[in-house]
Structures are given as C-alpha cells and as structure tokens.
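Technical note accompanying the year-one report. For the benefit of new consortium partners, we illustrate the data format agreed upon in the data management plan: each record pairs a sequence with a structure-token string. No post-processing was applied to the example shown here.
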Amino acid sequence: MSDEVANVYAAPQAHFEALANGNSSGLGNMYPVPAEVPGWSWGAFTLNWIWAIGNRTWFGLMALIPYVGLIIAIVLGVKGREWAWQNKRWDSVEHFNRVQRRWSIWGLCLMIIPLLGIAAAVAIPAYSDHVSRKANFMVYMHAKRVASHVGAFVVNNRRLPTSLADAGVTEPLPAGVRSIELNQGSAQLEITLDGPPVAGATFYLAPSVDKEGYVNWRCMHGEVPRSLLPQDCRYSAADPFRIK
C-alpha cells in the first residue's frame, strides 16, 4: 500500500531527468527556460506554420487564418524559441540552438530569394535603359552634327540638299544607327535606331528658320520612348518650315 501511495505522488521519470541534468525541454511551461533559449526566431517568423509543425508549437497554425497571419508570425518570432523548447524534447541547449539556426537559415533564404528577384526585376530594366540612353545620346549628338551641315547648306543655297552627301556629310554612321535620311517633303532628318530595345524605331530632327534666316532644329522623340532619349527630344510636333 505504501508503495502505491508513493507512486501516486512520484514525478514522472522525465521530470526526474530534468531536475538531474537541467534539461527541461518538452516538459511544458511549468519549468524555467534556459537563459540561452529566448530570443528572436527568424525561422518561426518566416516559416510560421511550417516551423510550428516541426517544433510542435500548434499555436503557429493560426498563421493560416486570413488577416491574422502577420500578427501570428510576429508573435512566433518573439516567443517561438521558448515555446519550441517547452513543447518538444531536445538533447541539449546546443542541439536546440543548432536546429533553430537551420530553421532561421531556411526562413531567411525563403525571404531573401524573392527580394533578390524583385531587385533584379527592377535593376535589370533600369540598367538596360541607362545603357540605351547613353548610346542614344551619342546618336543624338551625331544627328546634330549632320543637321548643322544641312542647316548650313540651306542658309548658303536657299534650298534643301538633294542628299546628305550633297550637304557635305561624310562622317560614317555610328554604332546603333540603322540610317539617317533627309525627308525632302518635310525637310526633317529621320534617324532610325538599330540597337535594342528600340531597333527600327525612328526619332526626328525638324528644322525651322528664325528671323535672321538661320536654321534651328527641334528633336522629336517619334517612335522612341522619351525616357530613352535626351531631354531635348521631348517634342512630338514640328514647327512649320519654310526657306526664306
């Protein structure tokens, strides 16, 4: 009888072990948590319900509930390590920390990879536009030199040249230019690009004659997005042109 009474009040074997070696893991919240356990858990925050299943912390399944998932994730990040220690048996604090570090690494990878993807989705087009703007600026400067030859020819001869060669243009086309043509009807220079992402697109230099008889040129973006051309090419329409 005395043995039976003693067994009724005896602590479970696991409790004896906890008292003996200080490993209170898996025994619930009645035992103190080692000082090395509390802290922020990236694994619990980022993987929330998956982490909860792996660490027998069923509260984390509430992260599956719409509209409260973020709140639950934050709570898990703050308290998750303590709960994991209380709810699951671990060999030691070192074993616990080692496993939680793995969860954190997996969680951070899950968070960082999409962020890298978003950054790449923004940075790659931005860099491509930067390269294209730089190349198109050089094209624009070349076109202005061609236009100056044409303008000088008009001032001296009071007519349009029959061709760019007639205006004294001998400079070869730079890289990224498919063609530069003088439209005899509108007197506009038509610059067709040859480099991505605007291969085959055309922008224009449109002439006008001022009161002194000099030819000025307005850059029209035409088929090329304004963002890929210099600020001077913001126009979409030309002034009337008439040789005086």
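Partners are asked to follow this layout when depositing records. Residues 1-11 have pLDDT under 50 and may be disordered.
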